[in-house]
Write a structure and sequence with these properties.
The chain is built from eleven helices and ten strands. It has two domains: 2-89; 108-345, BirA Bifunctional Protein, domain 2 (2-Layer Sandwich), CATH 3.30.930.10. Helix 2 (21-32) packs antiparallel against helix 4 (50-89) and helix 5 packs across helix 10 (318-326). The chain has 359 residues and is α+β, with helices and mostly antiparallel strands. It starts with a helix and ends in a 14-residue tail after the last helix. Bound molecules: 3,4-dihydroxyphenylalanine (DAH). 3,4-dihydroxyphenylalanine is lined by residues 176, 178, 218, 257, 260, 290-292, 313-315.
């Protein structure tokens, strides 16, 4: 038997009796590796006489191809075998509960904002927005807050850039959402309107109940026949739904805001027992918002005729309402980005507030 045939027999036998991929790989190296037996035979082609080469070269090439082909076939067989064994030994129990994963939570401020928006939308209000960096004009003057008013002191207000003389350049971080009243009313179709304005506001203050940035919600309703009773009904309706207390009692306490006349601060009846706050009952009162009838000067700054139009406005602290409703003791914790706090006080993303499901 020729050497080529003998080599072929040896390797084909080895390949067919190999049991795993490692065996197969060592056979491949023994045959076709750099110093492999077949490789050596191939190298000898170069030393042959032309006559011999013409006969042997095709045979050697055929040998090499055959070995490669057999190695490949055997490799596929072994892999198929491995897969079949895995399929028959591995299984999954599809009735088992899924692995716990960390679910994100909705921040209480986002949740409470959504709740408030949901209630006022139901009452016919739509959302308006405005910039957080405002001019003196929108933040103060147009709201009937004169230059000598204490709110305009640097003590309370973050000024971002010295303004030009008439104060039209944006130069103050808005101290309340009220400037959006002006921005809305001065539009050509600004009145009549019923709008709410949720948003961030800024004041130079920091303790357990004050943070330099906090969230407010402004309300504004302007029309030809609006009076204080509409304001009262709207706020009572809001509080009843928001706190989910049927017999809620509100007290409208005379107050002063430059942009409303008359002005009222609104308190909610409550009791404190053993440090526990209960809303809707008791002898105590808790202030929850400011409100009033829009001052004629404010309407005039927006070129709205106060003889034809009048309306009410109110402003509430979203964070404060969230603290009251969900028993959150420290305002500062809202802005700490502590994931453990959020896990505790946050809301399930699927728990979308809706009036019909009791918010
Ligand atoms: N802008 C006031 C503040 O930040 C809140 C406020 C009071 C808004 C009375 C109003 C209002 O619209 O009528 O303290």
């Amino acid at each position: 038997m020729s050497e080529i045939k003998k080599t072929e027999d040896i390797f084909l036998k080895l390949i067919s009796s190999s049991k795993n991929l490692e065996d197969l790989e060592s056979i491949r190296i023994r045959a076709l590796g750099k110093k492999g037996e077949v490789s050596n035979l191939m190298k000898s082609i170069g030393l042959m006489e032309e006559k011999e080469r013409k006969i042997k070269a095709p045979l050697l090439n055929a040998l090499k191809d055959k070995i490669i082909e057999n190695l490949e076939k055997k490799k596929n067989l072994i892999n198929e075998d491995i897969l079949n064994k895995r399929i028959s030994s591995e299984w999954s129990d599809i009735s088992r509960p899924v692995r716990p994963t960390h679910k994100g939570k909705i921040h209480p401020i986002s949740q409470v904002t959504d709740e408030i928006v949901e209630i006022f939308s139901d009452l016919g209000f739509s959302i308006a927005e405005g910039p957080q960096i405002e001019s003196d004009w929108y933040n103060f003057d147009a709201l009937n807050i004169p230059p000598e008013h204490p709110a305009r002191q640097e003590f309370d207000t973050f000024y971002v850039k010295q303004n030009n003389k008439n104060g039209e350049e944006p130069n103050v971080l808005r101290t309340h959402t009220s400037p959006v009243q002006i921005r809305h009313m001065e539009k050509t179709d600004g009145v009549p309107c019923r709008i709410i304005v949720p948003g961030k506001v800024f004041r130079s203050d920091y303790d357990q109940t004050h943070t330099p940035m906090f969230n407010q919600l402004e309300g504004l309703a302007i029309d030809k026949d609006i009076n204080m009773s509409h304001l009262k009904w709207t706020l009572e309706e809001f509080c009843r739904t928001f706190f989910d207390i049927e017999d809620i009692v509100l007290r409208f306490r005379s107050s002063h805001f430059p942009f409303t006349e008359p002005s009222a601060e609104v308190d909610i009846r409550c009791s404190w027992e053993d440090g526990l706050l209960k809303l809707g009952q008791g002898d105590s009162w808790l202030e929850i918002l400011g409100s009033g009838m829009v001052h004629p000067n404010v309407l005039r700054s927006c070129k709205v005729d106060p003889k034809i139009y009048q309306g009410f406005a109110f402003g509430m602290g979203i964070d404060r309402l969230a603290m009251l409703k969900y028993g959150i003791p420290d305002l500062r914790s809202f802005f700490d980005s502590d994931i453990r706090w959020l896990d505790h006080y946050g809301f399930d993303p699927l728990n979308k507030p809706s009036i019909h499901n009791g918010l």
